[in-house]
Design a protein that fits this description.
- With 921 residues, this protein is of the alpha/beta class.
- It contains 35 helices and 25 strands.
- Among the domains are: 167 residues, Nucleotidyltransferase, domain 5 (2-Layer Sandwich); 184 residues, no CATH class; 215 residues, Rossmann fold.
- The strands form 5 sheets. Strands 10-11-9-12-17-8-18 form a 7-stranded parallel sheet, sandwiched between helices.
- Helix 5 packs across helix 15 and helix 18 crosses helix 19.
- It starts with a strand and ends with a helix.
- It holds the Pfam family RNase_T.
Length: 921
């Protein structure tokens, strides 16, 4: 094996070498036998101007490279570095392609060498990392990175990361290394020889495997077993005595006392705790005390981020406060956990899919580190989600007889821990799954804190409803496969043949599965056609929503849909007859098969259960006409012709929550920063089904000094949004955003309620010359998750982030990273939204006012969530721009403003407001 690695980094004028982009800095760090032995770096004269964006990013200007050598001068020295070496870079295709073209331009032959990409290697070896950008990897390794985006500094850090990863690779258990070796031929980096050499060395030290649980060819982290802790005498333990030395804010004390009283008196309650109150500590302290003295308490959140915050930041601090041990367990839905049985199975399956093999490698490393098997701990590539569907636990996992992995099942371990816990942390989705499935998923409990409670009702409608789409069917049918594929159908047929069972029924199922797949695709195509034909939205929208009432549908396409649905049902019945016979036969012979084969056949049968459930949901959507439910279709008119999504939800769930949730619990406490409208809880109490329970309420205002920390600015020279064509409004909006950005130096989050308007505004902003120095980041355009977009925004000094939907809450950008928040329009639900329009119609039919009873309160809660993005700490300072003048020109606008903390409001022409910005910032 070569033991010489040349770690390279380049800075360039752009990303496309074939379009005359050039290298402006080259750096290399040479590693031999595990040590850095040489460094080389040079600026390069590109003989062209350096774009301003690149200069801002790298700090390399035209003046810096003016007297630097051209690439041809340093090319001989560079090319000599790579002799008998690995070429290493953080994104090899980028650096290598630039160098190849530069060498060719200088008359050198195309050079070829083994490569290692530290992005790929980091993804495999650090599957839990939040980001694989160089700066964030350096931070996770506590490496000094003085000059990001300068080639010498970047190459140095890349080399240090490579050495850290190699050190970790050398310590992996032998069984893991062997599995990685077999996967390495499908990876982009040339790791085979490196792994081979490590395996040879590691074979001499097998005693080091003892720190792992090595079983059936997989190495798992040995789990720490917490001893049960029983405290015999807690009668005289008082919470007030425990908290004597704890510094709590006044609001926290009020909330703490209020929650403890609600639990001790078995009452439901609501608490709105404004930003800065510290509500997490205020509900954790009484919950833990109550759970230890009385009985367990469940804490439910909406987001994974809050669950992680509770477990990693808040609970460890709280454990230090209490004089007794506390047993805390996190429990999620079964689909969050890895099935070791299924993962063992897929490791034996050959695949040429890069993302699938990368994901397998990531999971192998993760297994040596995880105690939970919870997928939220790691970040699989986008294509890895297909693999996860194959290897996750499902509800049939517990029905396998004699499963060799049962004693190590991650989900069962999580359930056992929850059974013994004082506090169970879970999520709203599992809360509803538990309600829907006869309380099968959570251990019994009577007391619960629901954080992020403004999501409880909308999440409930989603989980008490259904979603059906073609991808769902395609995924199940692909997993079953046909006899010419490597799916479960073909694998099960081989197993039947091997144990001497009649396998003729597989031929019939093969034919029926092919027909079923065609009919399902045709059905979704017909649904797509029907929506396009009947669509009354004439704007160039990226999403069409079509309200479905099957009792009123008619015409040829609808009849075609019903006929296809009937055909699908008949085909599936024919399939299931053969499958049931196969099940009966196999049940008498399964003792003759290996655990691996038994698992394959089990998954084969379970896939038909999943397929049958999806077909039932499809039938409900198309034929069930319950008035308490709403059905609608969503599709992208430019998407695939079978890409329709079918949704079915209860119109309201207040009564169901009252009967199945609140009625059966002694104390349910809802808390959030946004539960009131105009200082009253009435709307939230009614829509959550709490009216008859007369819950206790507590409203705690934010502790931040909004009067001195924030200003509201309303440009009164913006057109009123409904009085001008949308193009004219967007043009005015973009110009005003640009001018505000110049004054605030970027650091701006712009919140939209419509993706179409966001996209139109982005296109105009791109063309405004005064913003050439600014980084524009737009949700749905720039690519990446909300977290990734937020991190990119924070990485640049002059940045503008355009967001919609998910950016209205849950985004935390503290300090100087965010100076200005712009709300483009008040966040009313669009009138053509199917759920909103149906609920509004019901209110009207009952003689009510849908605007004041539904539209306005929902918008006010959303508005409060959006404003909450601006001030995240007592040291923050910022400006809120509201571009929608309805907030002051309409009678209902005061509802929005009165729901906010007291702030100074300026309503003036933009130029006057810009002067106020100068005075303020």
């Amino acid at each position: 094996m070569k033991n010489r690695f040349v770690v390279v980094d380049l800075e360039t004028t752009g990303n496309i070498p074939k379009k005359d982009d050039k290298i402006i800095q080259f750096a290399a760090v040479v590693i031999e036998d595990g040590e850095i032995v040489e460094r080389f770096a040079s600026f390069v004269n590109p003989n062209r101007d350096i774009p301003q964006f690149i200069e801002q990013l790298t700090g390399i200007s035209n003046d810096v490279v003016a007297n630097a050598p051209e690439f041809s001068i340093i090319a001989p020295e560079i090319i000599s570095l790579f002799e008998d070496s690995y070429f290493v870079a953080h994104n090899v295709p980028f650096d290598l392609s630039f160098l190849q073209i530069e060498f060719e331009n200088c008359g050198y032959e195309f050079f070829d060498c083994l490569t290692i990409d530290t992005v790929e290697l980091s993804r495999i070896m650090l599957p839990w990392a939040d980001s694989y950008k160089l700066g964030q990897l350096a931070e996770s390794f506590s490496l000094v990175h003085d000059n990001p985006h300068q080639a010498d500094s970047d190459a140095e850090v890349t080399a240090e990361i490579l050495l850290k990863i190699f050190a970790k690779l050398n310590k992996l258990p032998l069984v893991t290394l062997r599995k990685l070796l077999s996967l390495s031929k499908h990876l982009k980096s040339d790791l085979y020889e490196i792994l081979e050499e490590i395996i040879t060395k590691r074979s001499e030290f097998l005693d080091e495997e003892k720190e792992y649980d090595v079983y059936r060819g997989l190495a798992l982290k040995k789990c720490t077993v917490e001893k049960d802790s029983f405290i015999s005498d807690l009668e005289n333990v008082k919470l007030s005595n425990i908290l004597e030395d704890v510094s709590l804010r006044q609001g926290q004390l009020e909330m703490l006392t209020f929650i403890l009283n609600a639990m001790e008196t078995n009452q439901h309650a609501l608490v709105e705790a404004g930003t800065g109150i510290g509500k997490t500590l205020a509900y954790l302290l009484p919950s833990i005390y109550f759970a230890k003295i009385n009985e367990r308490v469940v804490i439910s959140t909406h987001t994974i981020q809050l669950q992680q915050q509770l477990l990693e930041r808040d609970i460890p601090k709280i454990k230090e406060i209490f004089p007794f041990p506390i047993n805390i367990a996190l429990l999620k839905g079964i689909g969050h956990y890895l099935s070791l049985r299924k993962f063992e199975q897929v490791l034996y399956e050959e695949s040429d899919n890069y993302d699938e093999n990368l994901s397998k490698a990531q999971i192998l490393i993760w297994l040596t580190e995880t105690e939970t098997g919870d997928i939220d701990e790691i970040h699989l590539p986008s294509g890895g989600k297909i693999l996860w569907e194959k290897v996750k636990c499902n509800r049939t996992e517990n029905t396998i007889r004699d499963c060799p992995w049962e004693s190590r099942c991650f989900y069962k371990r999580a359930r056992k821990q929850a059974e013994k816990a004082d506090i169970i942390i879970t999520n709203h989705a599992l809360l509803y799954s538990n309600i829907m499935n006869n309380h099968a998923y959570l251990p019994s409990y009577q007391y619960i804190i629901v954080d992020e409670a403004h999501h409880l009702e909308p999440i409930g409608r989603k989980y008490l409803g259904q979603k059906v789409n073609y991808i769902q069917f395609h995924s199940i049918i692909t997993q079953i496969g046909i006899l010419d594929s490597h799916g479960l159908l073909m694998q099960s047929k081989k197993i039947f043949t091997n144990v001497g069972l009649d396998d003729s029924s597989f031929q019939l199922i093969d034919i029926l599965i092919k027909e079923l797949k065609i009919n399902i695709s045709d059905l979704f195509r017909s649904i797509h056609n029907m929506v396009i034909k009947n669509n009354k939205q004439n704007d160039n929208t990226y999403r069409i929503q079509y309200l479905l009432d099957s009792s009123k549908e008619s015409g040829g396409i609808w009849q075609e849909i019903l006929e296809l649905q009937s055909r699908i049902k008949i085909h599936f019945k024919e399939i299931i007859v053969s499958v049931r016979l196969q099940q009966d036969v196999f049940s008498n012979y399964d003792s003759m098969t290996t655990p691996l084969h038994k698992g394959i056949v089990h998954d084969y049968f379970a896939s038909y259960e999943e397929l049958g459930a999806a077909i039932i949901e499809l039938e409900k959507f198309l034929l069930d006409n319950q008035k308490k439910y709403i059905s609608w279709i969503e599709l992208d008119p430019k998407g695939p012709l079978n890409s329709a999504n079918l949704y079915r939800e209860p119109i309201e769930i207040a009564d169901r929550l009252a009967d199945t949730f609140y009625q059966n619990k002694k104390s349910v406490i809802l808390t959030s920063a946004t539960l009131t409208i105009d200082n009253t809880f009435e709307y939230v109490i009614e829509k959550n089904g709490l009216t008859d329970f007369q819950p206790l309420t507590l409203l705690l205002k934010s502790t931040f000094d909004y009067k001195n920390q924030a200003k509201i600015m309303i440009p009164n020279d913006m057109p009123v949004i409904n009085s001008v064509p949308i193009d004219e409004y967007v043009h005015s909006l973009a110009l005003q955003i640009a001018e505000i950005a110049i004054r605030t130096n970027g650091r701006m989050l712009v919140l939209f309620t419509s993706y179409e308007m966001l996209k139109s505004t982005y296109e105009i902003l791109k063309k405004i010359l005064i913003l050439d120095n600014f980084i524009l980041i737009a949700q749905g355009i720039s690519g990446g998750s909300r977290t990734k977009l937020t991190k990119n925004f924070q990485a640049f000094d002059k940045a503008i982030l355009l967001g919609t939907n998910s950016f209205w809450e849950g985004v935390d950008i503290p300090g100087d990273d965010l100076s200005a928040l712009i709300m483009v329009r008040l966040p009313f639900a669009p009138p053509n939204d199917p759920v909103f329009s149906t609920r509004a119609k019901m209110i009207t039919e009952a003689g009510g006012d849908p605007f004041h009873e539904l539209s306005l309160p929902e918008a006010v809660i959303r508005f409060k969530q959006g404003v909450g993005r601006l001030i995240r700490s007592e040291n923050d300072k910022g400006i809120l721009f509201i571009m929608d003048r309805r907030i002051t020109t309409t009678s209902y606008g005061k509802k929005f403003l009165s729901s906010l903390p007291t702030m100074t409001i300026f309503e003036q022409p933009l130029q006057s407001l810009l002067q106020e910005i100068d005075n303020w910032l």
